User: Which sequence fits this backbone?
């Protein structure tokens, strides 16, 4: 199972966390974490030093995340772990992450180089077979040549345990994502720009039962952007991708390769100095060479409105529609429609309160004709709620406390869970 991404935002691939699935969602990241563990991946990023403290070169950090998850495997109420191959093991765990991190930010003439290397060690109490150590690297070269050419080169190596939201772990499955991209843009005039990108990624699963989902993809993208003098823009893009599953032979039910086309429009409009509207509307079409009944297509999109109530208070409203690959005997993909809200309030100069809520409607579609009518197509509704506080007593220290709650209603037996609560905390030091 993985979500597809027709046009990954190159800068976001460096700055934002990428969930450890074979590809990120088409129009952005979920606000709330899907993976079992103490925190969303983005919390692992260290605070950058203030812009006025130049020259910035190196900074280092270390931290500990501790969380208690009372439903690690997202099981229905009262169901034991025996049915998922974990007989005798608990469904709750205190999860600890110890991590160290080194960062680089160097500018040379018009070039800027960014790098981040992190090693995280995860420990699950009572579920030691899930323990793992994950090295990760993110790097970017932001280049400029003359007055008209600019672009980025990125490489990311990420690793995480597979989500338990839709799978039942008979064994630990570590997912490894390697993502590389090179992009360039040429200014035809002060307002009009043309550009393109080459994007490649590989995704691998460590569990034997999941290796058939290992994937390789290469994407070429072209775009035209109109950039207004105030920084607002409209960008049209088109992309062509080819992918294959190296560890899965073609069969009558599953193919070993695919092709995909994507096109759409990106828009950024700054309503004011502290409010903005960002959107994407696109269309994705995926085709398989032999098992054509698994082909799918559809509209994707995302709209984010950040309402800056004051310089210290804001609310992010978002709505999105995503397509994701979900290959089982009775489905080929899912469609997720989601709405969310995420307020934050800087109560004091060093204390920020934050919260988030998302509701998902998810349909699992693309049932092969041979199974049509045997089972109703799966439909889920999910809720995610999170609240927390961040305290930065000095520029070197960060402390975070919070709680997250989630649930799911499904028309398929065995996929409901009435509540999953994660209480988490972080202590982080950087220098």
Assistant:
């Amino acid at each position: 199972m993985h979500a597809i991404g027709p046009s990954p935002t190159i800068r976001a691939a460096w700055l934002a966390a990428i969930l450890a699935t074979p590809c990120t969602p088409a129009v952005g990241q979920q606000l709330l974490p899907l993976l079992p563990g103490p925190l969303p991946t983005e919390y692992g990023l260290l605070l950058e030093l203030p812009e006025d403290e130049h020259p910035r070169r190196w900074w280092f950090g270390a931290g500990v995340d501790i969380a208690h998850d009372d439903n690690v495997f997202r099981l229905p109420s009262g169901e034991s772990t025996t049915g998922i191959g974990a007989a005798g093991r608990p469904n709750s765990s205190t999860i600890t992450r110890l991590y160290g991190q080194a960062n680089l930010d160097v500018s040379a003439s018009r070039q800027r180089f960014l790098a981040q290397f992190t090693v995280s060690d995860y420990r699950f109490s009572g579920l030691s077979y899930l323990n793992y150590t994950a090295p990760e690297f993110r790097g970017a070269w932001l280049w400029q040549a003359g007055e008209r050419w600019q672009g980025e080169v990125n490489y990311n190596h990420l690793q995480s345990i597979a989500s338990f939201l839709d799978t039942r772990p008979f064994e630990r499955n570590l997912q490894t994502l390697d993502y590389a991209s090179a992009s360039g843009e040429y200014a035809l005039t002060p307002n009009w720009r043309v550009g393109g990108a080459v994007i490649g990624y590989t995704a691998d699963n460590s569990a034997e039962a999941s290796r058939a989902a290992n994937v390789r993809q290469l994407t070429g993208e072209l775009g035209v952007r109109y950039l207004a003098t105030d920084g607002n823009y409209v960008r049209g893009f088109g992309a062509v991708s080819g992918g294959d599953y190296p560890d899965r032979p073609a069969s009558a039910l599953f193919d070993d390769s695919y092709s995909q086309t994507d096109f759409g429009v990106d828009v950024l409009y700054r309503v004011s100095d502290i409010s903005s509207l960002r959107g994407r509307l696109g269309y994705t079409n995926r085709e398989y060479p032999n098992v054509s009944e698994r082909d799918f297509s559809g509209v994707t999109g995302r709209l984010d409105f950040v309402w800056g109530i004051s310089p210290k208070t804001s609310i992010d409203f978002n709505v999105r529609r995503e397509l994701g690959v979900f290959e089982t005997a009775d489905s080929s993909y899912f469609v997720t429609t989601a709405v969310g809200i995420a307020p934050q309030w800087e109560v004091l100069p060093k204390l920020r309160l934050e919260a988030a809520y998302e509701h998902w409607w998810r349909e699992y579609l693309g049932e092969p004709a041979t199974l049509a009518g045997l089972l109703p197509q799966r439909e889920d509704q999910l809720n995610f709620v999170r609240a927390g506080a961040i305290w930065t007593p000095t520029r070197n220290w960060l402390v975070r406390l919070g709680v997250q709650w989630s649930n799911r209603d499904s028309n398929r037996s065995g996929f409901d869970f009435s509540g999953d609560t994660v209480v988490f905390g972080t202590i982080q030091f950087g220098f």
Notes: The chain has a mean pLDDT of 83. DSSP finds one helix and 19 strands in the chain. The domain at 2-430 is CATH 2.40.160 (Porin). The two ends are 39 Å apart (CA to CA).
